[in-house]
Write a structure and sequence with these properties.
about 600 residues, TIM Barrel, Jelly Rolls, 8-stranded parallel beta barrel, 6-stranded antiparallel β-sheet, 35 strands, Beta-galactosidase
Length: about 600
C-alpha cells in the first residue's frame, strides 16, 4: 500500500502536501484524517457575511469548507479579470483559515452548481466550438484564466502555511463527456502552475460516470444523496472513500415545489458514510443566494430555470438561521472533535415587519424607449452577439401584415413579451407557445419584442447554448428584417412615463437600525428587484419562492429604496417580512 502524494515540477520552498491517500483512507501529515466539510460559496454570500457563515460552519462541526470558483463571476468580459470586493477569493480562504478551517477548492472551468452557464463565461460559450474538451479555443480561454487564478491560490496551500488542502480537477465530467486528454490537460494545468496539494475528481454513482470522469493522479470522489453502498462498490482500487457532494437538500426550479430533506434522513446517511470510514462534504452546508441573475437552469424536455434562493434546505439557512438539520449534523460530527466543538453563534437579527406602497414610475415600453439603441442589424442578434450576459433585450422593427397573419419567433430563448405600437399582444415562451395572432384586420406598426433570459443552462448537453432570438422572427413564411436592439440596464433602470399595469415602480422604507430582511411583492407577477441599486434577483408568481433575501449590508440607516421592474403586472405594495416563504414543500433525498 503506497500513499498517493502530490508532485510538482516547480522548485518551491515548501513542505509536503497536507493530505495523502490510499485504500485505507486519508492521512494528514501521516495521521489518519477525515474531511468533514460543508459547501459554502463565496459568490452566493455577501462578503461582509463571509465570516459569520464560516463561523456557523465551524460550529456545525466541519473541519473544512469547500467552495467552487465561478469563472464567469470573475471574468464577465474577456480580459477583465476581477479579484476585488465580492470577488476576493483569497480573502474568503484566509477568513476560513483564521477560523481553523481547511479549504477544499473546486476551480474547474465548469462547476454546474445551478449557477449561470455552469460557471463558464457567456463570451466563452458563445465562441468555443466544444466546451469542456481539448478544443483549442476553449483551452486557450481556460489557460488564460488559470494564469490569473492559480497563482493566487498557490501561496494559500497548506504546503506554504495556508488552509488549502485539496483541489478538484473537473466537476462531474463523467456525466458530460469522454475527452480523456482534456482531463489530463486540466490536471497538468494545476500542477504546472504550482498546485502541490491533493487533487480530486467528483462524479455520480454509475460505473460509466466514474470511468469517464476519473484521471490518474487525482482521487476519485462521488456525488450522491443516499448512495453510500453503491459508491463503495464503485470505489477505485487504491482510492480513499469520499463523497464530495452529499446532498443534504436540493435546489428549486420556478413552477415546482420547494425541495426539503429531513434531518433524520440526512443523519442516517451521514452515519452510514462515517461508519464506512468515509470523508464528505455536505452540499450545501449554507446555500446562500443567486443574487442578480446568476441563477442557472436545467432542460429536461422544457427549460427549468432555478429560483433566486439557493437555500437548498441547508443546515445553515439563507439568512444564517440554524435549523434542526444543523444540530443533527453537529451531533454526527461531534465524535471527531473529542466533544470540543466551537460555541453556537447567536441567531441572526431581523428587521421588524413593514409595508410600503409601490409607486408606478413608467410602463415597460417607457423603459424600453428610454434605453439607447445598442445595434441595428437585418436579423435579430443573440445576447452573445450583443455582449449581453442576461436580463432583458428589446428587439424593434416596423412591420406590415395582412389580415389573419401570425407572428412566430424561431428559437426563442427564453420568454418574450410582444407589443405592436402601444398594444400588448401577448407573451411567448421557449417551450410553450412561440407564435401569436396579429390584429385580425391587418395593418402596420412598430413591433417591440422584449426578451428575457430566464437562466443559462448549467448541466447536460445543452450547456453553453445562446440566449435571445436564435432563429429569427417570421410573419407567416416571411422573415422580418431591419432590427434595432436595446439592452435594458441591470443597474436599477430609472425613467418616468405613463403608469400602466406593468413596468417600473419604487417603494421606500425608513430603517433606523439595519438588519437582515425578507421582501415580498404581493400582487406582482414577474419582476426584478433592486435594493438601494443592488439587483437582489427575481420574483415570479409561478412560485415556489415568495420572499427574496435582503442581507443586512445592503440596507442603510435612514431611507432605503426598493425598485421593481415587472414585465407582466405590478403589485401595490412591498412587504418586509421576518421569515422566509419558499412555498409548498416536497421531500427529496437524491440517489
Amino acid at each position: 500500500m503506497t500513499d498517493t502524494v502530490a508532485t510538482t515540477p516547480h522548485d518551491l520552498t515548501a513542505g509536503g502536501p497536507a493530505l495523502t491517500w490510499n485504500e485505507e483512507g486519508l492521512r494528514r501529515y501521516g495521521r489518519e484524517h477525515r474531511i468533514l466539510s460543508g459547501a459554502v460559496h463565496y459568490f452566493r454570500v455577501h462578503p461582509d457575511q463571509w465570516g459569520d457563515r464560516l463561523r456557523r460552519l465551524a460550529a456545525m462541526g466541519a473541519n473544512t469548507v469547500d467552495t467552487y470558483v465561478a469563472w464567469n463571476f470573475h471574468e464577465r468580459t474577456e480580459g477583465d479579470v476581477r479579484f476585488d470586493g465580492w470577488r476576493d477569493i483569497e480573502r474568503f480562504i484566509r477568513i476560513a483559515g483564521d477560523l481553523g478551517l481547511d479549504v477544499f477548492v473546486r476551480p474547474s472551468p465548469y462547476i454546474c452548481a445551478e449557477w449561470s452557464n455552469g460557471g463558464i463565461p457567456a463570451w466563452v460559450s458563445g465562441r468555443a466550438r466544444a466546451l469542456r474538451t481539448t478544443d483549442e479555443g476553449f483551452l486557450a480561454a481556460v489557460d488564460a484564466w488559470y494564469d490569473r487564478l492559480i497563482p493566487r491560490l498557490v501561496p494559500l496551500q497548506a504546503a506554504f502555511g495556508g488552509p488549502i488542502v485539496a483541489i478538484q480537477v473537473e466537476n462531474e465530467y463523467g456525466s458530460f463527456g469522454s475527452d480523456a486528454a482534456y482531463l489530463e490537460h486540466q490536471r497538468e494545468a494545476l500542477r504546472s502552475r504550482g498546485i502541490v496539494e491533493m487533487l480530486t475528481t467528483a462524479d455520480g454513482i454509475t460505473r460509466d460516470m466514474v470511468e469517464h470522469g476519473s484521471v490518474d493522479g487525482a482521487m476519485t470522489t462521488f456525488t450522491f444523496g443516499t448512495g453510500v453502498s453503491r459508491a463503495l462498490e464503485l470505489r477505485r482500487d487504491g482510492h480513499a472513500f469520499m463523497c464530495a457532494e452529499l446532498w443534504g437538500g436540493w435546489f428549486d426550479h420556478w413552477g415546482e415545489r420547494h425541495h426539503v430533506r429531513s434531518a433524520q434522513s440526512v443523519r442516517e446517511t451521514l452515519d452510514e458514510l462515517l461508519d464506512a470510514g468515509g470523508s464528505l462534504s455536505l452540499y450545501m452546508a449554507h446555500g446562500g443566494t443567486n443574487f442578480g441573475l446568476w441563477n442557472g437552469a436545467n432542460h429536461d424536455g422544457r427549460l427549468q430555470p432555478t429560483v433566486t434562493s439557493y437555500d437548498s434546505d441547508a443546515p445553515i439557512g439563507e439568512d444564517g438561521t440554524l435549523n434542526e438539520k444543523f444540530h443533527a449534523v453537529r451531533a454526527a460530527f461531534a465524535p471527531f472533535h473529542d466533544g470540543h466543538l466551537p460555541p453556537i453563534p447567536a441567531p441572526p437579527r431581523l428587521q421588524a415587519p413593514q409595508t410600503a406602497a409601490l409607486a408606478p414610475q413608467a410602463t415597460l415600453l417607457d423603459v424600453v424607449r428610454a434605453t439607447p439603441v445598442a445595434a441595428t442589424r437585418p436579423r435579430p442578434m443573440t445576447y452573445e452577439e450583443l455582449g449581453a450576459e442576461d436580463g432583458l433585450v428589446a428587439y424593434e422593427t416596423d412591420v406590415r401584415f395582412e389580415a389573419g397573419a401570425r407572428l412566430e419567433i424561431a428559437g426563442l430563448h427564453d420568454r418574450a413579451t410582444v407589443f405592436l405600437d402601444d398594444e400588448r399582444l401577448g407573451t411567448l415562451e421557449r417551450d410553450g407557445a412561440t407564435s401569436l395572432a396579429l390584429p385580425a384586420a391587418g395593418g402596420a406598426g412598430r413591433l417591440t419584442i422584449v426578451v428575457e433570459s430566464l437562466g443559462r443552462i448549467n448541466y447536460g448537453p445543452l450547456l453553453g447554448e445562446g440566449k435571445g432570438i436564435i432563429g429569427g422572427v417570421l410573419i407567416e413564411r416571411r422573415y422580418v428584417h431591419g432590427w434595432a436592439h436595446r439592452i435594458l440596464p441591470l443597474d436599477a433602470p430609472a425613467c418616468t412615463g405613463d403608469r400602466g399595469a406593468d413596468g417600473l415602480a419604487i417603494a421606500t422604507f425608513d430603517v433606523s437600525d439595519p438588519a437582515d430582511a425578507w421582501l415580498a411583492f404581493p400582487g406582482g407577477a414577474k419582476g426584478m428587484v433592486w435594493l438601494n441599486g443592488f439587483l437582489l434577483g427575481r420574483y415570479w408568481e409561478a412560485g415556489p419562492q415568495v420572499t427574496l433575501y435582503a442581507p443586512r449590508p445592503l440596507w442603510r440607516a435612514g431611507r432605503n429604496e426598493v425598485r421593481v421592474l415587472d414585465t407582466d403586472r405590478l403589485g401595490d405594495v412591498v412587504e418586509i417580512r421576518e421569515r422566509p416563504s419558499f412555498g409548498p414543500t416536497e421531500e427529496f433525498i437524491g440517489s
